Amino acid sequence: MLNRRHIRIKVMQAIYAFKGGESDSFDKEQKFLLFSLDNLYNLYLLQLSLLIELQKKAEDRLEKTRNKLLATKEEKNPNKKLVNNEFLLLLKNNEPLQDALNQYKITNWELDDEYVDVIFKNILASDLYKEYMQTKTSDFKEDRNFIVDVFKEIVAPNDKLFDYIEDKNLTWVDDLPLVNTAILKLIRKSKPSVASNYFVPKLYKDIEDKQFAIELFKKTLLNRTALNEEISGKTKNWDSDRIASIDFVLLQMSICELNKFPSIPVKVTINEYLEIAKEYSTPKSSIFINGILDKLVKEYHDEDKLNKTGRGLM
User: Fold this and answer.
1) Which residues of the chain have pLDDT under 50?
2) Could you tell me how far CA 266 lies from the centroid of its own chain?
3) Distance of CA 200 to the CA centre of its chain
4) pTM of this prediction?
5) Are 257 and 215 in contact (CB under 8 A)?
6) Beta-carbon neighbour count of residue 220 at 10 Å?
7) N or C: which end of the chain has fewer CB within 10 A?
8) Are 143 and 51 a contacting pair, CB within 8 Å?
9) Measured distance CA(283)–CA(277) in Å, rounded
10) Which of the following CATH numbers is that of domain 223-302: 3.30.470.20, 1.10.940.10, 2.60.120.10, 3.40.1350.10?
11) What is the pLDDT of residues 159-218, one digit of tens each?
């Protein structure tokens, strides 16, 4: 689920928040970094559980409507298409997912049911719902595609849900686009007979990704003096106060990666940090960072300092 760019962003935030020096212990900050990464999985489960709650909400609404004292003929024989949505039922009945929700104690919607109501009412008022409910029967593909559209157009962009997530955990704000994208991909690729663990993917693609987060964090902090000297050498005409703090952190990390991670191609490192700068720093930051890294890479190349292993890593 996690990709390397998001790992770099999390490391950037941890380094930016670190106020100590090279000789200070940063065990606390490292633990918070790993907690922040692991906590992304809670957000993933929270968003998936919301879809399950929407199915339950539809079921509850149907029962209340059918049991009204003066229910109409149509209300006594309602359209059960949403209640019987095959994708939602597949999600609801998936045992590994239910186990994960219990293990991670994802019970938010029991206490904060009003947010489920907001999303559910938005669905009922949408053209998507009206079109979907024109028939009483459907197949898995139609049901799945309806949920894809609902998630993409109603759930993901909902401002009240965003505010709720931000209030619950500040680190989730940066995680939400990644989590929502992962869920959309998961829904789109789902089939009626998916593997039992389909809805509980691993947080890290492999153990190397988790190790990468720890090593990038540690090596950047442990080599700050040398990294700052490299930056100063290429910014002699710049007042240090004019360099955005985030830019400084991104330069530290990218130079560390160029020197301390031989298996990562130079182009990958540069492109990743330029993209992060575009999203998290000033409009001109990516141009500034690109200029510094370009000079350093040429210098390293001329002095044969780029210790990259494998083909095509230069």
Assistant:
1) 311-312
2) 25
3) 15
4) 0.89
5) no
6) 23
7) C
8) no
9) 8
10) 1.10.940.10
11) 999 999 999 998 899 999 999 999 999 999 999 999 999 999 999 999 999 999 999 999
What is the distance in angstroms between the CA of the first residue and the CA of the last residue of the chain?
28
3-state secondary structure of 109: helix
Residue 164, token pair as written in the block: 């709720």
> Around Cβ 71, how many Cβ atoms within 10 Å?
14
Residues 29/222, Cβ–Cβ less than 8 Å: no
- The token duo for 266 is 């130079």
Query: Which amino acid makes up residue 190?
Result: S
DSSP-assigned states of every residue in 212-270: HHHHHHHHHHHTHHHHHHHHHHH-TTS-GGGS-HHHHHHHHHHHHHHHH-TTS-HHHHH
Tokens representing 124 are 């009922």
CA distance 161 to 154: 10
